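U., I forgot to send this yesterday:
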Amino acid sequence: MSPFPYRLVATDLDGTLLRADESVSDRTRDALAAATAAGAAHIVVTGRAVPWTRHILDDLGYQGIAVCGQGAQVYHAGEHRLLTSLTLDRQLAGLALSKIEAEVGPLALAASRDGLDGEVLMGPGYRAQEGPLPYVAYEDPAELWSAPLTKLYLQHPTLGDDELTRAARETVGGLVDVVMAGPGIVEILPLGLSKATGLSLAARRLGVKAAETIAFGDMPNDIPMFGWAAHGVAMGNAHEELRAVADEVTLSNEEDGIAVVLERLLSA
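Result:
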């Protein structure tokens, strides 16, 4: 048997490692365990901030480093502590928001507060994702800006995700970064921040290089991670923008797409 060709396996969560019910299949768990036994480290790289990620990592028995908040947070799951955390400049974000709304009209807003227990605030009209993830509703706009944030979430009453992302990026691309991270999830981030930023920091801590990394993802916010890693694998359910830059496309998250690739590499 040939040695496993990568020292780091980076996986997104939603639409990639997780199935629709937020579980990880036994087959995928076994494939990741086998890759780990063969000498590779597994690292979760997710757009979710730590408070929305921690329960999943605990369920997986995950003890290592995770990259959360689109790269803003490097989190040690075994020690339940933040190693690094980058916040959004609220004055700059407010300026960007006003410019976007001047272009496309009023937006529904949510925001993720910084920290291990940072709340997700949701404003009037924002459509929350179904599921168990906690959030706090707010009415007073001043509350949105009252504490440090890692990101802002935007929704438009009529524009689709791709249209809103494109319009926002064209309007404020020099002030902040705008990414589409999932259905109904368009985010404002600090300029220059991406999953690749956080992954490179985490990999350095692990003593692993980009050339030794395979990455799995499903959405446009995974594009920088694919650009950084040696090999990018898009899930069968991936957005067309990610599929266009992927080195290969596997089966969907519901069909154990990660396991299919890892099993092939392990048995090569």
